[in-house]
Amino acid sequence: MSSLDTRAAKRYAAALFQFCVNEGCVDEVYANLKAVDDLMRQSPQFKNMWSSPLIPSGRKRAIIGKLFEGNVHSATLAFLRLLVDKRREDTLAEIPAELGQLIDIAANRMRAVATFAVQPTEDEIAGIIASLKQRTGKDVTVSVKVDKAILGGVVVRMDDIVLDGSIRGSLEKIREHMLVEG
């Protein structure tokens, strides 16, 4: 997706967020959009229909009406129809993530991914959460990944921030330092 499409997705997500805040349906619409995103991944037919420029807008509106009316919040259905009407179906792939970020910001929450070399204990995860909460001043939700390639320690990613406390990262820093001095 181009940067122009990404900016459009951010604008649509921001407008949807503001509307949903006013209507009190943020969580439901967010869950609906994640479900639509899952449907895109699970159903090549739906994904092809959604992204096809050859299918007229009226036909797409009818299909999404049949699929979603009564199954999703009315704001979700109206939003999907808006994307079809504006021929911005391509932005839908990024909108759930953008909406999720806006929800997190409003809730003073941050998501992080912590990568360990081995499965961490509950105490280690709690320690990471406490440290990140103290560092950011926000509630932190941590997803855990295991990657033996980091050799040991932990690598934490939050938005654009990477905190590398891995053995591999330390070895690479030592190597770089030796190359510069050598």
CATH topology of the largest domain: Peroxidase, domain 1
Distance between the termini: 43 Å
Beta-strand fraction estimate: 5-15%
Largest sheet: 4 strands, mixed
Number of helices: 8
**Order of strands in the sheet with most strands:** 2-1-3-4
Mean pLDDT: 91
Named CATH architecture of the largest domain: Orthogonal Bundle
Assign a percent range to the helix content: 55-70%
From the spread of the alpha carbons, the general shape counts as elongated
Give the low-pLDDT segments. Answer: none
Number of domains: 2
CATH superfamily of the largest domain: N-terminal domain of the delta subunit of the F1F0-ATP synthase
Structural class: alpha+beta
CATH top level class name of the largest domain: Mainly Alpha
Q: Count of DSSP E strands?
A: 4
Pattern of helices and strands: HHHHHHEHEEEH
Using only CA atoms, what is the Rg? 21 Å
